[in-house]
Design brief:
Belongs to the LysR transcriptional regulatory family. This is LysR family transcriptional regulator. It comes from Paenibacillus phytorum. Keywords: DNA-binding, Transcription, Transcription regulation. It contains eleven helices and eleven strands. Strands 3, 4, 5, 6, 7, 8, 9, 10 and 11 form a nine-stranded mixed beta sheet that branches. A two-stranded antiparallel ribbon has the order 1-2. Helix 2 crosses helix 3. It starts with 6 loop residues before the first helix and ends with a helix. The mean pLDDT is about 85.
Length: about 300
């Protein structure tokens, strides 16, 4: 089987899978569509399995295709690692796929990213946002190189490296928080709980806190953006359980207030990657840089 496999077919397979379309994959790769079709046909012949189902619009993976996907990512990543080793590059060069929570990106990455690009101008960093469960799945399946999550997933196939401690705090508009602290949660039973939705670990924890108080009937309001959540809270439309670092500026300015009587929930944001994986030179460089950046930040705060 191996003698009939090549990197081009694997890259084409991954691109078709991600784009869910032969024509979009051809456009992204700079091929004519017949070349994409040929690559997939050759790979299917080699593996003896159909990899895609044709849909009215686009394609989706077959069961065999889903089994092949993590190996295809590993195949290409091993090739990249081998190329790095053979070329003996003094400066890391190549693509690094990083995924993190949007609420982590907003307060931290504007300061972090310029330092990476300044030190490693040849690294192409592909940053995407997602929720903890999604990030764990993507890293486990080799679809991304590095992830930043708010809690140790405690998975045997993943390495977790602590970066920064944080805490979840209940926050809202000053008038709403004052009312709640004077009269209790029951006084604001018609208030919405604002967050990223049920896929978000913060929202899951908020629901658990309210359930423990016997207040499971709060209405949820969901947004994809940290900024939208904060703006909605500032208009007095609800409360949210948010990382302290993501609302620090609004708390300092008085635009939002923290519910002081509520216990905080400790978080420890950390970097994850596949355990035992031979990281490519650019991925290793980014990993070490991110760790060093937050270590230096911690030393400045405690020094």
């Amino acid at each position: 089987m191996l003698e009939h496999m090549d990197g081009r077919s694997m890259k084409t397979f991954i691109t078709v899978m991600e784009e869910k379309s032969f024509s979009k994959a051809a456009l992204k790769l700079g091929y004519v569509q017949s070349t994409v079709t040929m690559h997939i046909h050759q790979l299917e012949q080699t593996l003896g399995q159909a990899l895609f189902k044709r849909l009215p619009r686009g394609v989706e993976l077959t069961d065999a295709g889903r089994e092949v996907a993590p190996y295809a990512y590993r195949y290409l990543q091993l090739g990249e690692s081998l190329q790095d080793k053979l070329t003996g590059l003094h400066e890391p060069k190549g693509v690094v796929r990083l995924r993190a929570l949007e609420s982590f990106c907003v307060p931290h990455l504007p300061q972090l990213l310029p330092t990476i690009f300044e030190q490693y101008p040849q690294i192409q960093l592909q940053l995407e946002t997602g929720f903890q469960r999604d990030i764990i799945q993507e890293v486990s399946a080799y679809r991304v190189d590095l992830g930043i999550v708010p809690r140790d997933p405690k998975a045997n196939n993943l390495t977790f490296i602590p970066l920064i401690q944080d805490e979840l705090v209940w926050v809202g508009a000053p008038a709403l928080v004052s009312r709640m602290e004077n009269d209790g949660w029951e006084a604001i039973a018609d208030t919405k709980v604002i967050g990223f939705g049920s896929r978000c670990i913060y929202q899951t924890m908020a629901s658990q806190v309210l359930a423990d108080k016997g207040l499971a009937n709060f209405t949820a309001m969901e947004f994809d953006s940290t900024e939208m959540i904060k703006q909605t809270m500032m208009f007095g439309m609800g409360l949210s359980l948010m990382p302290l670092t993501s609302v620090q500026e609004e708390l300092q300015s008085g635009k939002l207030l923290r519910l002081q009587q509520e216990k905080t929930i400790l978080l420890e944001h950390g970097l994850i990657h596949r355990s035992g994986k031979d990281l490519s030179a650019p991925v290793q460089a980014c990993k070490e840089h991110i760790i060093s950046y937050f270590l230096a930040q911690k030393e400045r705060e405690t020094g």
